[in-house]
Design a protein that fits this description.
- The chain has five helices and four strands; from the N terminus they run H-E-H-H-E-H-E-E-H.
- It has 99 residues and is mainly alpha-helical.
- It has a single domain, classed as Orthogonal Bundle (Arc Repressor Mutant, subunit A).
- The protein has a two-stranded parallel sheet with strand order 1-2. Strands 3-4 form a two-stranded antiparallel sheet.
- Strand 3 and strand 4 form a beta hairpin.
- The protein is globular, with a radius of gyration of 12 Å.
- The termini are far apart.
- Keywords: DNA damage.
- This is Methylated-DNA-[protein]-cysteine S-methyltransferase DNA binding domain-containing protein.
- InterPro entries: ATL_DNA_repair (IPR052520), MethylDNA_cys_MeTrfase_DNA-bd (IPR014048), MethylDNA_cys_MeTrfase_DNAb (IPR036217), WH-like_DNA-bd_sf (IPR036388).
């Protein structure tokens, strides 16, 4: 599979994450069955500006490095469950097969 195809798969999945929910880099890679958190992060850093990038977070709920303030503002406006300035992964994590 070409890198462009992988990037498109990642971006298509990120576009499906509902407002107020998140997926971790690793969860995205796991769902796609290819790559890992770093590969997903690379796709997001190069091509993620046109998708809801703030809905992709570290597995511990940490927001996108360097963009924390904007991501936090967006999460608050969407009502994403938070624990301080991190995402509450127990309640905010989303998996595509959920209703």
């Amino acid at each position: 599979m070409a890198d462009e195809e992988y990037a498109e798969m990642v971006l298509d999945l990120v576009e499906r994450i509902p407002a107020g929910r998140v997926m971790s880099y690793g969860a995205i890679a796991e769902y796609l069955g290819r790559g890992g958190p770093r590969q997903v992060g690379s796709v997001m850093s190069h091509y993620g500006g046109g998708v809801p990038w703030h809905r992709v977070v570290a597995s511990n709920g940490r927001l996108v490095p360097g963009h924390e303030a904007e991501a936090l503002r967006r999460h608050r406006s969407e009502g994403t469950p938070l624990r301080g300035e991190k995402i509450d992964m127990r309640t905010a994590a989303w998996w595509p097969d959920e209703s």
